[in-house]
Structures are given as C-alpha cells and as structure tokens.
Amino acid sequence: MDRYLLKLQLVWVEELARYIMIWAILMAVPCCTAGREHMGLEFVTKRFPLVAQQIIKICVGALTFSFFGYIAYLGYTFAEKGANQLSTVFSMPMAYAYAAIPVTFALSSFQAFLVWLEDIYALKFYLASEKFDVQGEQL
C-alpha cells in the first residue's frame, strides 16, 4: 500500500515487514507441533503393530522435545550476540528480531512435551484396556 497506492516510499516499512514476517513464520512452528502437523514417518510406522506404533511415537516425541529445547538454547545464545547489533532503519537492538528463535522453539518444545505426555497416557490406557480384554471383564 505504501509503495503502490500512496507512493510514499517509506524506508522503515520494508524493515518492519521483514521482522514481522520472521516472527509470524516462526510462530507457526509451535502451532503445528501442538497439532502434530510436523513431518512424520507414518508410511513406515503404519506397517508396525499398534503397540509398536505407540512406542515409536513416544521415542520420536522425546527426540522432538529435546531437539526443540536444544534449538531454543542455541537461539538464546544467538539472540544475546544480537544485543550489540543495531538494525539499519530503526536502530533497535537486533536481539528483538533474533529473539524469535528462542521464543518460538521454547514454545515448540513445550508443545512437543505435552504431545509426548499424551502419547504416554494413550499407550498406558491402551495397555490397560488390553489387560481387561484378555480377562474378559468389561468396565
């Protein structure tokens, strides 16, 4: 709108749009993690029995939780280094822009932890229901 309709050519609009876009894109990662919309190996895991599928989900969940936590830690050290750098137009510390990495990956790690807990409880309830089916008792 700035460039084509108003013909103002404001310099700060492009830089602001860049930082907002970075934050918006990275904030989608925790949302996708909570909904299990990240990449998976369902083609391979669907060939295993149901208990093995649940165990694989738990193992992958632990790896995902750990990976996102590690990236959040590395992103924090990266953002610290950006405290001494200033953006071109706003002269704001680049740590605000770089903070998108540790914030979003910490949230992703938390979401992955919650999904991991869901998988553990799902396996626990599945095994408990199998136990009652073997004995022939109904709840």
From TrEMBL:
The keyword ATP-binding does not apply. InterPro entries: DctQ (IPR055348), TRAP_DctQ (IPR007387). Residues 3-119 form the Tripartite ATP-independent periplasmic transporters DctQ component domain. Pfam families: DctQ. It is a multi-pass membrane protein. Its main location: membrane. The keyword Disulfide bond does not apply. It is found in: Cell inner membrane. The chain crosses the membrane at residues 16-34, 55-76, 96-117. Keywords: Cell inner membrane, Cell membrane, Membrane, Transmembrane, Transmembrane helix, Transport. Belongs to the TRAP transporter small permease family. Part of the tripartite ATP-independent periplasmic (TRAP) transport system. The complex comprises the extracytoplasmic solute receptor protein and the two transmembrane proteins. PANTHER family: 2,3-DIKETO-L-GULONATE TRAP TRANSPORTER SMALL PERMEASE PROTEIN YIAM, TRAP TRANSPORTER SMALL PERMEASE PROTEIN. This is TRAP transporter small permease protein.
